[in-house]
Amino acid sequence: MASFKKEWLAEVKAPTPWILWAVLSIVVAYAGPFGTYDGFPFATRAIYWVGVIGLSIFVGISTRVAVRVMLPRQNYWVVSAVSAVAISLVLVCPLRLFSLQLSGGDRQDFPSLLEFWAMIFLVSLSVSAVRSLLHVAWGEPTTPATPRLLDRIEPALRGQILRCSAVDHFVDVYTANGTERLRMRFSDALAELDPNEGLQVHRSHWVAQTAVNGHLVDKGRLFLRLQDGSLIPVSRKLRPIVEERGLI
């Protein structure tokens, strides 16, 4: 959840969605699709399409960030395609119904549900293409950065890093696809975890915030329960940081 919130806020604060909202609102209000050109003056069309496009963009941002969090190793266009499918499924029924009512109710020439879905899907992909160009223009990355520590891991085991543990002169790295032991200092491993959002909870343990799904107190000792079922001890010294992050 923390990762989703952080990425969502980063998307909203970027200039790209605001530029898209302004440009698309003007273009679509002028064109007046789905019967809005003949039935309403430009000012009314503008108000309607500003609202519809604004809602669509922010639904799109939320969907795209959720897909990116769930598929952290996929490239920009895979995330865009999956997001376009999800966005079109979410928006097709309400937008078609609203547009149909706005255009005068039952019309034989109005696009079918499938045609409407296809239009939303294609528009979503087109927006992704424009976003890609704007990202380049604004100097924003189109693919999420990955921690350097993953480069040390066998390709088959690379995936979302759930936790790391120091064992003598080694570091055990636990990912969504398995575990690998690396010969390195724990402090060096922590330095290579950026930009993974997580925290050190013990002198020998680091956890990803998104991997934590509960906690346990046993004989006065606090443990974080991770999504893989493991229990990670929290030191007294680092407990305030864990509490500050809202993990307990």
Describe this structure in words.
By secondary structure, the protein is α+β, with helices and mostly antiparallel strands. The chain is 51% helix and 18% strand. It is built from 8 helices and 8 strands. It has helices at 2-13, 15-31, 36-39, 42-70, 76-102, 113-138, 186-191, 239-244; strands at 161-167, 170-175, 178-183, 198-202, 205-208, 212-218, 221-226, 231-234. The strands form 2 sheets. A 5-stranded antiparallel sheet has the order 3-2-1-5-4. The model has no long low-confidence stretch (mean pLDDT 81).
Give a short synopsis of this structure.
With about 250 residues, the chain is of the alpha+beta class. It has helices at about 1-15, 15-30, 35-40, 40-70, 75-100, 115-140, 185-190, 240-245; strands spanning about 160-165, 170-175, 180-185, 200, 205-210, 210-220, 220-225, 230-235.
Q: Ranges with pLDDT <50 over ≥5 residues?
A: none
N-to-C terminal Cα separation, in Å? 14 Å
Number of separate strands = 8
Q: How do the SSEs run, as a string of H and E?
A: HHHHHHEEEHEEEEEH
Largest sheet: 5 strands, antiparallel
Could you give the order of strands across the largest sheet?
Answer: 3-2-1-5-4
Please specify the SSE layout and strand pairing.
Layout: H1 2-13, H2 15-31, H3 36-39, H4 42-70, H5 76-102, H6 113-138, E1 161-167, E2 170-175, E3 178-183, H7 186-191, E4 198-202, E5 205-208, E6 212-218, E7 221-226, E8 231-234, H8 239-244
Antiparallel strand pairs: 1-2, 1-5, 2-3, 4-5, 6-7, 7-8
